[in-house]
Amino acid sequence: MKKSLGSILAELRKQNNMTQADLAEKMCVTDKAVSKWERDISCPNIETIKKLADFFDINVNELLSAKSSSLNIKEKI
User: Fold this and answer.
1) How many CB atoms lie within 10 A of CB 18?
2) 70: number of Cβ within 10 Å
3) Of 14, 20, 23, 38, which sits with the fewest C-beta atoms within 10 Å of its C-beta?
4) Which residues are within 8 A (CB) of 76 and not within 5 positions of it... i.e. 6 or more apart?
5) What pLDDT was estimated at residue 74?
6) Which one is predicted more confidently, 1 or 51?
């Protein structure tokens, strides 16, 4: 099942016990920007997508394809 980029980013962030502000600081953006990404209101720019993939130790294709199986994200029951 495909998920949106925003939902994948939110899950990755939460799995790493980070707040939106924590992730924003690492990506040199505002927490409002992270919130908009996670709600699929906006999308990170290409440089930030690469930084996000590197930070979460996944490749860009996995992040952009947003396939939960390729990211080993546990489904919430």
Assistant:
1) 16
2) 13
3) 14
4) none
5) 41
6) 51
Per-residue pLDDT at 35 exceeds 90: yes
| Rounded Cα–Cα distance for residues 35 and 9 (Å) | 10
The Cα–Cα gap between 72 and 30 comes to 28
Of 25, 28, 24, the residue nearest 9 (C-alpha): 24
Q: Over 70: is that where the pLDDT of 68 sits?
A: no
Q: Residue 2 pairs with which residues in a beta bridge?
A: 67
Q: Which residue type does 51 have? A: K
**Would you state the pLDDT for residue 66?**
61
> What's the CA gap between 25 and 65, in Å, rounded?
25
Radius of gyration of the chain (CA): 11
